[in-house]
Amino acid sequence: MGGWQVITLNCPRAAYRADGDDDKLFAELKRLMDLAIKVFKVKQRWMQAIVESGRMPFATQRPKDPWTGKKGAIAVYLDELVYIIGVVGINEMVQYHYGKQLHEDRGALRLAVRAMTEMELYARELSRREEMKISFSRTPAETVVQRFAVADLLNKEFRDKALKVVKGDIERALSLIQETRDLPVYYTNGTHVPPSASISLPERINIEHIFFPIVDGGNIMHIFLGEGYPDPRGVKNLAMKIARNTQTGYYAFTKDLTVCLDCSHVTMGLKEACEKCGSKNLDYISRITGYLQAVSGWNEGKKQELLDRMRYAVRELR
After folding, report:
1. Contact present, 105 and 199 (Cβ < 8 Å)
2. Residue 4: which H helix or E strand, with range?
3. Distance CA 255, CA 268 (A)
4. What is the pLDDT, as a whole number, of residue 154?
5. Phi, psi (5° rounding) for residue 266?
6. Distance CA 312, CA 308 (A)
7. Which member of 67, 190, 220, 266 has the greatest number of CB atoms within 10 A?
8. Which of 157, 140, 169 shows the shortest CA–CA distance to 304?
9. How many CB atoms lie within 10 A of CB 93?
10. C-alpha closest to that of 172 among 159, 182, 161
11. Could you tell me the pTM of the whole model?
12. Which of 171, 193, 207 is nearest to 310 (CA)?
C-alpha cells in the first residue's frame, strides 16, 4: 500500500497543445501536474473522512502483541503513503514535438530527458509547496496507453495530430471506431522505446536505462525473448551486464507461451495451432507490464502491442 492515488498524464496531448514550442510544452506538462494536485486534494479529504469514521478497518487496525496482549502500531502507516504522478507516451510526445522518436535521433532523446527532468523537479517543488508526498513515476499503464490513444483519436481537436504518432493497427482502429472503444491502438508505455522499434538490444538498453534515475518508481525494462529455450548461461550473462554496466533498476525477461485449452499442452512462442493435438482452441501467456497474464484478458491495444514487439536472442549481448 505505497500510494493513495495515481494520476497519469497524457504526455502526447501536451505536445499537441504546445504545437512545437518548447516553453509551451513544459508549461503544459506542469499544468497537468497542477491538475493532478487538485485531484489528490479531493482524495485526501475523502480518505480522511473515511478513516475518521472507522470505515477502513484493515488498514487502521492495531494488531495485538501475542505475548502481552497490548495493541501495537497501526497496520498501515497512512502518513507514509504517497501521491503518484505517472507519465505515458513520452516517445509519442517527442515524436510529435520534435519530429523523431527516442531511438531515431539524439535530439529527441535529449528532449525527453529534459522534459522528464523538468517534471521530476516540479514534483519536488509541489511536494514542498503543497506539503504532500508526491512520487514521480512511470505508470504501469495496462489500460491507459490504449485509453489515451483512443480518446485523442475521438477528439476533433487532436485526431489529425494523434494519427501521426499513435501506434498499432490504425486502419483497423478507424474502421471500428464507431462500433467500439476497444481499439488496437496505443501510446508507448512511460519512457520506453516503442515495442516495434527495429533496433538492437544494446541500443534499446542504452536509451531506456537513462530514465531510471529520474523517476521514483514504476519503471521496468522489458527484454522480450525470441528464443523458446534460451541458453541459461546467456541469460545470466546478459542479466549481469545490465546490472553492472547500466542504471537499470528493474528488468524482466519474457518468453511468450501458447497454451492449448483442449489438451493443456504448453508451447514456447505464439502459435496458431497446438503442436501436439492440432487444436486452435488456444490461449497465450505473456507479460502485460510487470506481470505474466493470459492474453485473452487483455484489451485490443495491448494485444496489438504483443504482436508489434521486437523480440531478441540472448546471444545478441553475450
Report:
1. no
2. strand 3-10
3. 7
4. 97
5. -110, 130
6. 13
7. 190
8. 169
9. 30
10. 182
11. 0.92
12. 193
So what's the pLDDT on residue 3? 86
Stretch (H or E) spanning 257: strand 257-260
Q: What does the alpha-carbon distance between residue 265 and residue 282 come to, in Å, rounded to a whole number?
A: 10
Bridge partners of 286?
A: 293
Q: What is the mean pLDDT of each run of 10 residues along the chain (318 residues)?
A: 88 97 98 97 93 90 90 87 94 98 98 98 96 88 93 97 98 97 96 96 95 89 89 91 94 95 96 96 92 94 96 74
What length does the chain have? 318
The Cα 208–Cα 188 span in angstroms is 12
Residue 295 contacts residue 284 (beta carbons within 8 Å):
yes
Grid coordinates representing 262? 483442449
C-alpha cell at 250: 528493474
Half-sphere exposure (Cβ direction) of 93: Cα atoms closer than 13 Å: 34
C-alpha cell of residue 132? 504532500
Q: d(Cα 96, Cα 298) in Å, to the nearest integer?
A: 27
